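anyone seen this seq b4? input:
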Amino acid sequence: MSRPIQITLITLACIGVYFGLRSLPVEKCEFLHYGDFINSEGVIEGCGYEETEFFTMSEIQFPILPVLTPLTDPVVGQPTTFKLTLFTTTGKPVKWEEIAVSHTEKIHAMVVDPSLQDYQHLHPQAAGPAGHYLFEMTPKRAGDYKVYLDFIPLINSRRTLLEASFTVPGTPETPSPGSLMEFEDGDLQFAFIPSQEKLVTGEEVRFKLEVETKDNSPTRFSPVMDSYAHVVAFDENNTGFAHLHPQNPFIEGQDPLNPELEFAFLFDQPGYYRVWAQVIVNDRQVFAPFDLTIR
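predicted toks r here
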C-alpha cells in the first residue's frame, strides 16, 4: 500500500473517530461560550446555563452504572440513608476527586415520587471506598421514586445524566394534571408566566418567575447553588427531566431584590409536565410547583 493511501486511510479513520465521539449522548458544557473553566480545585464556573431541553432517559445512555440501595427500609415521613455506587461499565469507580464542582456541588440528585408532588434536590457525598456515595432524604409519599443524577466527570468535562430508583411501601398516587401557574407559600406569592399563550412542541418558550410578598415588602433573593433560582420539570409518566437555570446565569451585577428570573424550555413531546422552582427568598427556601400542558 502506497504512503499517500495510508495517510488517507488514517485521516479518514481519525475523522470517523471524531464524529463518533461527537455523536455520543452527552450534553456539552459550553466552556467557550461563557469563558468557563475548571479551576485548580476542579470547580467549573458557569457550566450548562443554556440547557433548555427535556431529557427522556430511555433515549440516552452513558457508560456508568448507578446502583442505589436504601440502608433501611424507606417509610413515608421517616429519614432514610441511601448508598449510591457509581462504576463504569468496565468496573472502574467514578471517584469523588474525578467529578467537577458544578453549581457549587459535585453530584445533583433530583428525586421525585410518581405523583410528581414530592420533589427534593439532594447532593450525594463521598463515603467509604471510591465510587461510593451517601445521601439522606425523607420521602413524603409512597410509590416508586425516580432519582435523576446530573454531574460532570473531569475526564471529559461533559455533563452526565443517569437514572436510579427506589420504592416506598404504600399506595402510590398518580399525577393530577392541572393548570397551576400561581402558588403561595406563607407570605410569598409566586407566578410562572409564559411568553406566549400556546405552548407547543418544538418551539422554545420563555417563562418569567415572579415572586412578591402579600404586603408588598421587599423580596431579597439569596443564591441557590450559585444561581438565584433553579427550575426542574418532570413529565406525567416520569420518564425524564429538564434541569434549567436562568437565562442570565450570573448573580454578579444583579439586584438581589429584583434578579432576572427568565427560563427557556424546549419540549419535543406533548403532554403534562410538573415544574418545580427552587429559590431562597428572605432567608427562606421554597419549592414552588407549577403545571404546564404542551400541545
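The first strand starts at residue 27 and ends at 28. Confidence is low (pLDDT under 50) at residues 13-40, 42-50. kinda curious what u guys think
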